[in-house]
């Protein structure tokens, strides 16, 4: 039996990218755990609500939008006890097929968006003397991702940033935690961008990677399971630095940790039909 989750009466959670997928499922899980949940979306209107989640307009790629959104959240709630940085985008294609403009846009959401939100929320948490920041990473923050190199790189960057920041802010009663899902039934894979300068030489590899992804989605974990992992990490009395979410992520993390590098490399290339 899983441990009983305590009720977070009076606590306020802010979840980015909460209009769908993992963000929406996380918002629901936090509501069920007793949090007051405010969620962000680029298209939200003030006063909107989504299944009990109070929505706030925010584009994490804009300093002004992030500042305004956090000000509105604090004006409504007076505090932010938990920040879940979930908003993210992806590109499916070979690294060489992606222009620097496309890569910059990817980093602007997946990495710089997290930095913007965190930097604006941290002063409020320091004043409170407490807080938790949960960053939605990926198992691709630990393993390679052929034809998803730039997305994996953003998650590797997020891992290094989060672990380092956690050491900097513990003195103030704040913890920073990573959540690492694998393939998740959230609609994310359908919203990934195609490379903006595709090259014929990579067509077969890109197609094989797409087939691998499609097959893997049949065994993917649910967005709700990620939300449950977030709640567990948010309420742990002694949180770990990272939590894998779901069976697939757990198996891959174990393989990456204990299997010889050559064995992991060979298995990855076989699964993805890379010659």
From TrEMBL:
<dbReference type="GO" id="GO:0016491">
    <property type="term" value="F:oxidoreductase activity"/>
</dbReference>
<dbReference type="Pfam" id="PF00106">
    <property type="entry name" value="adh_short"/>
</dbReference>
<dbReference type="InterPro" id="IPR002347">
    <property type="entry name" value="SDR_fam"/>
</dbReference>
<protein>
    <submittedName>
        <fullName>Short-chain dehydrogenase/reductase SDR</fullName>
    </submittedName>
</protein>
<comment type="similarity">
    <text>Belongs to the short-chain dehydrogenases/reductases (SDR) family.</text>
</comment>
<keyword id="KW-0560">Oxidoreductase</keyword>
<dbReference type="InterPro" id="IPR051911">
    <property type="entry name" value="SDR_oxidoreductase"/>
</dbReference>
<dbReference type="InterPro" id="IPR036291">
    <property type="entry name" value="NAD(P)-bd_dom_sf"/>
</dbReference>
């Amino acid at each position: 039996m899983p441990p009983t989750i305590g009720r977070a009466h009076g606590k306020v959670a802010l979840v980015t990218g909460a209009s769908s997928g993992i963000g929406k499922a996380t918002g629901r899980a936090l509501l069920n755990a007793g949090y007051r949940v405010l969620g962000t979306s680029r298209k939200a209107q003030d006063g909107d609500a989504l299944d009990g989640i109070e929505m706030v307009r925010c584009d994490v790629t804009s300093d002004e939008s992030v500042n305004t959104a956090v000000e509105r959240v604090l004006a409504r709630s007076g505090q932010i006890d938990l920040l879940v940085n979930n908003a993210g985008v992806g590109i499916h294609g070979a690294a060489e097929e992606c222009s620097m403009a496309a890569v910059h846009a990817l980093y602007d959401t997946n990495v710089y968006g997290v930095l913007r939100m965190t930097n604006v929320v941290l002063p409020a948490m320091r004043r409170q003397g407490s807080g938790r920041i949960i960053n939605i990473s990926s198992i691709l923050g630990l393993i390679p991702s052929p034809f998803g190199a730039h997305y994996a790189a953003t998650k590797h960057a997020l891992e290094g940033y989060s672990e380092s920041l956690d050491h900097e802010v513990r003195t103030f009663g704040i913890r920073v935690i990573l959540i690492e899902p694998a393939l998740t039934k959230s609609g994310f894979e359908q919203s990934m961008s195609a490379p903006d300068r595709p090259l014929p030489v990579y067509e077969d590899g890109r197609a094989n990677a797409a087939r691998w992804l499609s097959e893997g989605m049949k065994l993917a974990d649910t967005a709700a399971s990620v939300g449950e992992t977030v709640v567990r990490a948010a309420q742990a009395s002694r949180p770990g630095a990272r939590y894998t979410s779901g069976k697939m992520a757990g198996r891959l993390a174990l393989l990456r940790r204990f299997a010889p590098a050559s064995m992991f490399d060979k298995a990855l290339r076989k699964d993805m039909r890379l010659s």
